[in-house]
Design goal:
Mean pLDDT of chain A: 92
Largest sheet of chain A: 6 strands, antiparallel
Number of strands of chain A: 10
Strand content of chain A: 35-45%
Low-confidence stretches of chain A: none
Oligomer: homodimer
Order of helices and strands of chain A: HHHEEEHEHEEHHEHEEE
Helix content of chain A: 25-40%
Strand order of the largest sheet of chain A: 4-5-6-9-8-7
Amino acid sequence: MAKYKEVAEDMQRKIRAHAFGKKLPTEKELLEMYSVSRNTIRSAINILVKQGYIHKIQGSGLYINKKTIGDRNVLNLAVKIGLSRVLPEHSITSKLLNFGLISADKKLASNFSCDIGTPIYRVKRLRFIDNHPLSIEDSYYNKNIIKYLNEDIAKNSIYSYIENDLKLEIRFSDEYISVKPLTDEECEHLNVQKGSSSLMIREINYLKSSIIFNISETLYNNDQIVLYTPVQRD
Amino acid sequence: MAKYKEVAEDMQRKIRAHAFGKKLPTEKELLEMYSVSRNTIRSAINILVKQGYIHKIQGSGLYINKKTIGDRNVLNLAVKIGLSRVLPEHSITSKLLNFGLISADKKLASNFSCDIGTPIYRVKRLRFIDNHPLSIEDSYYNKNIIKYLNEDIAKNSIYSYIENDLKLEIRFSDEYISVKPLTDEECEHLNVQKGSSSLMIREINYLKSSIIFNISETLYNNDQIVLYTPVQRD
DNA sequence: ACACATTTGTCCGTATGTATC
DNA sequence: TGATACATACGGACAAATGTG
C-alpha cells in the first residue's frame, strides 16, 4: 500500500484509541515520527480531514473531531464503502432474505451499464448492528465481475470477500439519499412503527477503471442511525 | 485566491458549459493551459473529484461525470455550503416565516459552543427553487460573529452577504441527515401530502479557525430533491 | 501595538512507479 | 512492447494565520 495511506490508517487507529489528546502532533513531528516527507504526511492528513476525523487551523494545529467517531448511531458517509468498515467497533450481522442468480433486464442493464442478459447476483439482507435491526439491503452484483457468490458469503461481509479473497479494489461510489414510506413487512423487519418512513440510499459502487460491480438500495432504521458527512469548502 | 482554486473554478465553469467533451485534457495539457506546476493542477483536479465532477482512471485520463451536474432534483452534498452555490443554474427565492433576535438558551449555547445569553439571530424561511417549494429552513446565526442581519438580507442569500459583504470565509460544515414526519403546517408550506415525512438536515457551519457562526435545521421537499454524494475510497 | 517563533497553506521542480492503451 | 497518463514520493522556498511575550 502507498505510504500516505498506511500513515493515514495508523493515525486513524491511534485517534480511535485516543492515543493523542485533543490535538495531533504538528506536521513536523508527524513526518519525523513516520520518516516521510512533508507532502506525504500532508496527503495522509488530508484523508483524515476528508473523512471527518480532524480539522485543521492554519497557524495553530490539527484538532481531533470528538463527536462522530465510533458512535453507533452515526453513519459517516465519507467512509461509507461497505458497512463493516464504517462501524468497526460494532458487530454487523445479517439475515438472508433472498439470494439468487438472475439475468439483467433493461433497467438493471442500464444501471449497470452492461448488456441485457448479463448474469447478476441478487442479495437481499436484513442487517443488524449489535443485534438491533439496522437496515434492509437489496443488492445486485455483476457476475461477470464478481464471478462467484454463495449464501455463506452473503451471510457475512461481501465486501471483505471481494477485497480480501477476490483481491479486487473498490475505488469509489455514488450515493443517492431520499425518503421512502415503508411497507408493513419492512416495518416488521426493522422493528419500527407501521406507517413510518425511512432513509433510503441508492448506491452505485465502482472498482478501479470505473467498472460498476454493485448497485444497491438500502432502507435504514431511523431509530438506529443518523447519517453524517463533513463538507469542506474549497 | 489561491491558484489551484481559481483553476478548479475555471475548470468547473468549463465543464458546466460543456467546453470539454467526455474527457478533460491530460494533466500535462492542463498545466500548460493554465501555466502552473503539476502539483497545482493536481490540487485543482482533486477538488473536482471530491465534488463529483469527474473521476480519474490511472493510465487513461480524466472523465466527466455526466449525471449529477446541473440537475435541479439533485442536491450535491459535497458542494453544499449555501444553497445558491449548489444550484447556480436555478433561481432560489425565499419567503420569510420568522425573523428575530433572541438570546442563547442552554441548548443553543451548547450547540454553538458559546455562552448562555449570547445574542442570536433566528431566521426561518420557506425556500423555493424555480418557484417550487423546496425546503423549510430554520436557522440561527451568532450575532457576535455575524454582527448585523435584517429581513431584506434574509429574503435573499445570507451566505453571499456573509462572504461578499462581510468578507468572512466559510470553511467547512458538519451535516447530519435524518427523517422527520412533517406537521400539517409544514406539509402545506412544502405542498406535499399530509402525513408524509421529509429529509431533515441538521447543519453546523464554521468559519476559519473553526468558529461556529451558524446552525440550522432544514426540511427538504422529497418531491423536489434527492441528495447526492460521491465517496472516494482512500 | 508590535515583533517573533510556530504551524499550516501554497507553489515549484524532479524522479520514479503503475495502469492503460 | 513501447508510449501515454495518472500515482507516489522527495526536496525546497516563501506566504499567511496563530499564539506568545
